[in-house]
Design a protein that fits this description.
Elements lengths: L1 H6 L1 H15 L13 H13 L1 H18 L8 H12 L7 H34 L3 H41 L4
Helix pairs in contact: 2-3, 2-4, 3-4, 3-5, 3-7, 4-5, 5-6, 6-7
């Protein structure tokens, strides 16, 4: 039984992403915004498994999270697919301290990319619905504030969470006797 859980630890941790996404802990937020939770798992997984697995699991994460928010007409899938592929192209680094800061910077970049793609979907949809540019420009200010808050939180928590998940995924890959 212990052997099974050790081998499947990374997949079991994958299940916690929708749970945390739905839980939405306010005490971890800033300005009413949460960190980009899927990126914390997607970064270590993609770094170990490669860009194709990162792309596939980015798609799976996007499908799962979009199915949890059925009333939304916008999707997280493009950002997570691109981040999964880009994260998979990054190689593991041996310097522990540099790696921790690197996780924060990479997750911040991914959060910025995902947030920007999400806002671009909203702007594109609003530009099709109305011809008024004033409503789009007024909506852009809170969107930029939300993206920057999400980037800050994701970059702040990434060194703590990603390093532990990376260690857990590496641990589950080793041979168990």
């Amino acid at each position: 039984m212990n052997k099974f859980f050790t081998k499947k630890l990374s997949i079991i941790s994958f299940i916690f992403i929708p749970i945390i996404f739905l839980w939405h802990p306010n005490w971890l937020g800033f300005l009413g915004v949460q960190p980009n939770w899927p990126l914390f798992w997607l970064l270590p997984w993609s770094m170990i498994k490669g860009p194709i697995n990162g792309l596939i699991f980015g798609l799976f994460l996007g499908l799962i999270l979009d199915s949890l928010t059925l009333n939304e007409t916008f999707t997280q899938i493009p950002g997570l697919i691109i981040c999964g592929f880009l994260f998979g192209r990054i190689k593991l680094h041996s310097d522990i301290l540099l790696g921790h800061f690197r996780y924060g910077l990479i997750c911040s970049f991914g959060s910025f990319l995902c947030g920007t793609l999400y806002v671009l979907q909203i702007l594109f949809r609003n530009s099709l619905d109305s011809n008024s540019l004033d409503s789009n420009s007024l909506m852009l200010i809170p969107s930029v504030q939300n993206i920057l808050a999400e980037v800050f939180l994701t970059g702040f928590f990434a060194p703590f969470i990603c390093s532990q998940l990376l260690r857990m995924i590496k641990f589950s890959r080793r041979k168990i006797k």
